[in-house]
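Key result, reporting period 2: structure in, sequence out.
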């Protein structure tokens, strides 16, 4: 196992990158702590696979270095990095049995036969293929083949890190949960450094201790699920995570208040004067409906009952706003305002969160 350091890392697929736009991966400095389980979350094309392939050595970064436990491995081939990587689509040997496929990474390293048999049996059970170990991989479904690929990634106990690149894409939905649970158990039992790439927030938030959120080639936030929920560092994190995501309003900031659509909205603290494009972010959980009085004028469009709570879709001066109400909470019949719980408000300048000045709002 190893700590993985990315030192001034950046990557462009172009031979002569000229501007930031030419970089699939913008400059990044980060330590992946030894033994931690990370999810790498972001929408398609944001650079997740590029980053993973740089860590595994499939891709040489155009700028910066990769270190394992302080050792520069930037030019070391994949084989020397001692990493297991599982891809989105199955990579299996069709003519071999499931058992031989699973044994392959161990045999390759000259492990004794009885030890191989023990590990293969165990992993066969983890991926739910104990009964099929002696079948040839040829003719198995894509789903089964992907389980073999996962098993091959899980079979070695001595790896520096385990990298998974959207490994459950072709897996049947109810099996996804089961396999994710097995991966978590594997992490718990062996404490490997794990990086799990996904574009699915539920997968990311249930798998990882720390979630690394990427947007447009940039790591925009690294945090626990709670930190991502309570203090999104970038408006993208706010609306990508949560369902529905954070509401974002253009606003003027005046110390301890914001002004939205000409209505004064109290903030939880005093904020510095920002000269850029100011916004406030409020998750639907912190939006209340009111009738008359204070608040931003809004019109209820529709109400969706999603079981544990209700989602109220509103229109505020042409902008769609979402509010969630706890189960059983009534929607006021004449609701025509939205009011924000100050504790749930974050302030943004040019899409990046800014911290309050440290002074609390006077009562
Ligand atoms: P993700 O895995 O998050 O979907 P990728 O890392 O695959 O994103 O891609 C990031 C960006 O780099 C995309 O704009 C993609 O088109 C581009 N890209 C990926 N691979 C290559 C390549 N081999 N050559 C050129 N551009 C690439
Ligand atoms: Mg990818």
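The corresponding designed sequence is given below.
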């Amino acid at each position: 196992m190893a700590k993985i350091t990315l030192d001034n890392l950046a990557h462009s697929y172009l031979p002569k990158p000229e501007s930031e736009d030419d970089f699939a991966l913008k400059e990044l400095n980060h330590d992946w702590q030894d033994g931690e389980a990370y999810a790498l979350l972001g929408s398609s094309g944001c650079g997740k696979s590029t980053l993973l392939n740089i860590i595994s050595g499939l891709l040489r970064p155009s700028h910066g270095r990769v270190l394992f436990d302080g050792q520069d491995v930037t030019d070391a081939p994949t084989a020397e990095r001692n990493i297991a990587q599982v891809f989105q689509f199955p990579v299996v040997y069709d003519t071999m049995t499931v058992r031989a496929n699973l044994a392959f990474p161990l045999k390759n390293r000259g492990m004794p036969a009885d030890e191989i048999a023990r590990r293969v049996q165990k992993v066969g059970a983890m991926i739910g293929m104990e009964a099929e170990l002696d079948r040839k991989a040829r003719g198995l479904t894509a789903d089964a083949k992907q389980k073999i690929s996962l098993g091959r990634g899980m079979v070695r106990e001595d790896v520096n890190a385990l990298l998974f690149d959207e490994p459950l894409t072709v897996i049947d939905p109810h099996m996804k949960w089961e396999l994710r649970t097995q991966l978590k158990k594997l992490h718990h039992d062996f404490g490997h450094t794990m990086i799990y790439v996904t574009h699915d927030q539920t997968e990311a938030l249930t798998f990882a201790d720390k979630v690394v959120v990427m947007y447009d080639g940039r790591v925009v936030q690294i945090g626990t699920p709670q930190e991502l929920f309570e203090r999104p560092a970038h408006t993208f994190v706010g609306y990508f995570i949560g369902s529905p995501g954070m509401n974002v309003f253009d606003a003027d900031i005046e110390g301890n208040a914001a002004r939205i659509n000409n209505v004064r909205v109290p903030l939880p603290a005093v904020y510095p004067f920002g000269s850029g494009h100011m916004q406030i972010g409020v998750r639907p959980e912190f939006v209340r409906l009111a009738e008359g009085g204070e608040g931003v004028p809004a019109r209820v469009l529709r109400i969706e009952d999603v079981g544990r709570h209700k989602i109220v879709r509103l229109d505020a001066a042409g902008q769609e706003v979402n509010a969630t109400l706890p189960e059983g909470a009534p929607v006021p019949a004449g609701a025509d305002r939205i009011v924000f719980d100050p504790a749930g408000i974050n302030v943004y300048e040019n899409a990046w969160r800014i911290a309050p000045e440290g002074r609390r709002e006077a009562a």
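Residues 63 and 169 are 31 Å apart (CA to CA). The chain has nine helices and 23 strands. This case is discussed further under Risks and Mitigation.
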